[in-house]
């Protein structure tokens, strides 16, 4: 006849009861055997799984100018398109810098305007 003792120390069905012996608990040999059976690295094929880069435009494909940008990128090629885009962004940053110099804005305000220009470019689809 098996007697169960609950976590509160009373006989009967109150609370959770313990059945079994301490020798089969996770603190014994079963834990060591279980730990050895779990693989430390999971691989698919010969190469480990690579995740997509995290720096991605969340508005990709959205915005008023996104279709034009995508068509232009497909026509002139990705490499040349990125070169032209980089030159345009650099030129726009220079215009913002000159504007800030003319109105007497400090570097912090200039940086804020450049960030705002990037955010607006994403929303309009220029960075699609």
UniProtKB/TrEMBL annotation:
GO terms for molecular function: electron transfer activity. One of its GO terms (biological process) is response to high light intensity. InterPro entries: PGR5. One of its GO terms (cellular component) is chloroplast. PANTHER family: PROTEIN PROTON GRADIENT REGULATION 5, CHLOROPLASTIC (PTHR35709). This is Protein PROTON GRADIENT REGULATION. It comes from Parasponia andersonii. The lineage of its organism: Eukaryota, Viridiplantae, Streptophyta, Embryophyta, Tracheophyta.
């Amino acid at each position: 006849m098996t007697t169960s003792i609950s976590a509160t120390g009373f006989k009967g069905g109150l609370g959770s009861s313990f059945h079994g012996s301490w020798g089969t608990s996770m603190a014994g040999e079963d834990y060591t055997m279980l730990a050895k059976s779990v693989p430390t690295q999971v691989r698919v094929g010969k190469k480990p799984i690579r995740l997509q880069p995290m720096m991605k435009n969340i508005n990709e494909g959205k915005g008023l100018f996104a279709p034009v940008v995508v068509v232009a990128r497909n026509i002139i090629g990705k490499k040349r398109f990125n070169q032209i885009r980089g030159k345009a962004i650099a030129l726009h940053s220079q215009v913002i810098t000159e504007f800030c110099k003319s109105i007497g804005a400090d570097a912090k305000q200039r940086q804020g305007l450049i960030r705002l220009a990037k955010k607006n470019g994403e929303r309009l689809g220029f960075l699609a």
